[in-house]
Amino acid sequence: MTAGGALDPACAIDQRDLMFPIRDHNPSGRVAYVTYVLMALNIGIFLSYVPILSDDRALYEFYNSYALVPARIGEGYGFEGLFTSMFLHGGWMHLAGNMLFLWIFGDNVEEEMGHFKYLLFYLATGAAAGLTQVAIDPSSRIPMVGASGAIAGVMGAYLLLFPKAKVDILIIFIVFFRIFPIPAWIMLMLWFGMQFLGGLGSDPTAGGTAFWAHAGGFVAGLIGALPFWLKRGGVTFWQRTDGHPPHPETKYPRINSSRIPKVKRR
């Protein structure tokens, strides 16, 4: 989630990151209709206002109408922004980062919860994420946009339900890159820690990434997924599934051998 609109866009994958997930090894057993519809809505709505992306004044007015403005919540109105803001983004990278995370983690959570409950869960955790940022800076009039609070909720649920599922992490260092499969709990806890530390080190009155919305959405996702986890047996659910979705893992071809060609000196 971003505060400040196009004047300071941010995304789930920050451009300074040297490590981020690119895929998981856990196919869903049925079509994740809700996840795909949410992705289509986010992309379609963003494309609808691409023509005004270069016009800061017009874009700010658009965000001011449909984004989440914390001060309005404190004044008793503007609650619709908790939901409309989830489908707005501050730029191409903001959108791409969020959709990548939703594509990686959404399908398995949707399968476990069921389509309708997953949709309610997504909207509820997104609203909780927005309210967390409101609680941190209730007087702010900076518009907030982005799906990352709701997607953080999906990630929190994924952590509880499938902690040992494999996620491929792309590590980039200058011109070197390598892909490592790691357990989801490591990647997700690192991500949550980065949001928490980012929140501690940020100025909530300025624009930029709404770290507390990310952290709040993640915690809301953990709490919201508890009934599903407990209904399936809690710890015994982990023992039955070994912390993985109930499907054989996808095997990807090795690509780490595709390095930059070595050049011999003469």
Automatic annotation (TrEMBL):
InterPro entries reported for this sequence: Peptidase_S54_rhomboid_dom, Rhomboid-like_sf, Rhomboid_protease_S54
Transmembrane segments: 31-52, 86-106, 118-136, 142-162, 169-191, 211-230
Membrane-topology annotation of the record: Multi-pass membrane protein
GO BP term, pick one: proteolysis
Domain of life of the native organism: Bacteria
Compartments, record wording: Membrane
Domain Peptidase S54 rhomboid: 82-226
Family per record: Belongs to the peptidase S54 family.
Protein name: Membrane associated rhomboid family serine protease
